[in-house]
Every structure is written in structure tokens, then in C-alpha cells.
Design a protein that fits this description.
With about 280 residues, the chain is of the alpha/beta class. Helices cover about 45% and strands about 15% of the residues. The chain has eleven helices and nine strands.
Length: about 280
């Protein structure tokens, strides 16, 4: 599905440089020679650190009024620049859309750790509860003591580990950062929406990147989603039918993923060390 068809950037960079040349985002984009991005169901912005990928994503998200959680550099000059951009759509803009940044994923992982800290404190309380019940000399005296009797009986019947697990939710701490980050994407990406992902490979192992690749491809194919992604992950760059803009080139051009510098560096490295496998 294509909701956003293109974004057109203001083209007279020389005039803008005179007035805004030292201001963000003019000082980032003025040298790109990037006048227009035509979107496909999966559009990728590729480039090394500092290439301006995140800046372009923020401009697209702001112009398309796509919801976001984390704050970003929303200066007066940024909003002036966005107002000069033009955006075209083929279909009605879906409400079920969002931009997901590395800050969003990091904040989520911190929240999980805080939850786990609370679980850890509660676990200590339940362990104490188990020991008090198991080794008490409790005797049933009235119906009011029935719940206490059940707890004592359970403590005497179960090991401490089973007693604690029966009273606590499964600890999120058992998930690695990568598993937590991957779960965040699965939770946030729904049906029939535009999703802007800023370097989603951060915190993901190669295996999880491959799983995210398949999930994105399936979301496009079966669930009516459109993705605009910044990445330099070879796994994500290899997504089926993705249109890739190389922001390291001047002017910016589209390329096949196998022609990108970072991908070829990986290829050359593994070929040179092929005998080690």
C-alpha cells in the first residue's frame, strides 16, 4: 500500500543558504541536491552516520503529521523549512501511523528495567512470605484463618521457586535487550499504517534483524502498511522490492542494495576470510 507518494523539498538552496545557511536543517540538507523522494511501499534512506538520514525522516514525519513519542530538534527554522516542503498522497492518510526512533526503543527498555526492579522487590517479599508460611506453627482456629491455611499448605507442598513463580508474573528481565527491542516493534506496528523507522537495527542481533525484515515485508504484503526506514543494516537493505536512496552520494541517487558501500565492505571482509569458515 502507498499512502505517501512523494515529498518535494525546497529547491533554491543558494538563496536559502544566504538567509538560513547556518541553521538546522538547512545546513544539513543544502548540499544534498535532493529535490524529491518518491515513496514505494518500502523506502529506505541509506547513509553513514552524519549523512542526514534522521533529519530527512523528521521532516517527512512533521510534514505528514505522523505521531511520535520522543522529542526532537523542532526549532523555528526547522518548522520554516518543513512549511516549504510539499507532500503528496495517493490515499487518505491513516491514523494508525507513527515514527519510531532509537530514543523510543531505549526509553521502552528503561521502562522494562524499572518494571523488573519492581518485580525484584516483590519477589523478595514473596520469598519471605513463603518462608514464614512453610515454617510457621499455624493452627486453624476459625473460618477467618482459611486463607492463611491455604497459603501454609501450598508452601509446604511446593518448593520456594514454584511458590514464587505461582504468585508473580513472568519477569520481563528474562528477555534480552534485543528481544525487548524486537517486541517493541511488533507491538507498535499495526495494520494499514505508515511507519517511519529510524535505524531499527540498533540493539537487534543479526537474527532479530532478519526476523524484523520478514515482519516488515509481511506487514506490507498482507496488512496494508507502508514503511520509510533509515538504516545501514545489510539485512534490512536487502528487503524485497525496497527503493533505496543513497545519502552518501552527491547528488543523492537510488541504488541497488548490493551496490552500497557498507554492504560491499561486509562482502569483501567475508570473502577475504572465507577459508576461516
Amino acid at each position: 500500500m502507498i499512502y505517501l507518494s512523494c515529498i518535494i523539498f525546497p529547491g533554491d538552496y543558494k538563496k536559502m543558504d544566504v538567509k538560513f545557511g547556518s541553521s538546522y536543517p538547512y545546513n544539513v540538507l543544502s548540499s544534498f541536491g535532493l529535490k524529491k523522494i518518491d515513496f514505494e511501499p518500502i523506502t529506505i534512506l541509506y547513509g553513514n552516520n552524519g549523512s542526514g538520514k534522521s533529519t530527512v525522516l523528521n521532516i517527512i514525519a512533521e510534514k505528514a503529521k505522523i505521531k511520535r513519542d520522543s522529542v526532537y530538534n523542532k526549532s523555528g527554522c526547522f518548522l520554516d523549512y518543513v512549511s516549504m516542503c510539499e507532500i503528496n498522497s495517493q490515499n487518505e492518510m491513516p491514523e494508525n501511523s507513527s515514527i519510531i526512533t532509537s530514543d523510543d526503543v531505549f526509553d521502552f527498555m528503561l521502562d522494562v528495567r524499572n518494571i523488573n526492579k519492581g518485580i525484584g522487590v516483590k519477589r523478595e517479599d514473596v520469598c519471605k512470605e513463603y518462608l514464614d508460611a512453610k515454617y510457621s506453627d499455624f493452627q486453624l482456629k476459625s473460618i477467618a484463618d482459611y486463607e492463611r491455611l491455604k497459603k501454609v499448605t501450598e508452601a509446604q507442598r511446593k518448593t520456594q521457586t514454584k511458590f514464587v513463580k505461582s504468585r508473580l508474573m513472568g519477569s520481563l528481565k528474562e528477555l534480552s535487550n534485543g528481544e525487548t527491542a524486537y517486541g517493541y516493534f511488533i507491538e507498535k506496528i499495526g495494520e494499514n499504517g505508515i511507519y517511519i523507522l529510524d535505524e531499527p537495527e540498533n540493539s537487534l542481533s543479526p537474527k532479530r534483524q532478519m526476523e524484523l525484515k520478514s515482519f516488515i515485508e509481511d506487514s506490507v504484503r498482507f496488512f496494508g502498511c507502508q514503511f520509510i526506514i533509515s538504516t545501514h543494516s545489510p539485512f534490512l537493505l536487502a528487503m524485497r522490492d525496497a527503493k533505496i536512496y543513497d545519502l552518501d552520494e552527491r547528488p543523492v541517487t537510488t541504488k541497488q542494495w548490493t551496490k552500497l558501500e557498507n554492504v560491499r565492505i561486509y562482502r569483501d571482509f567475508f570473502m577475504e576470510n572465507d577459508s576461516a569458515f
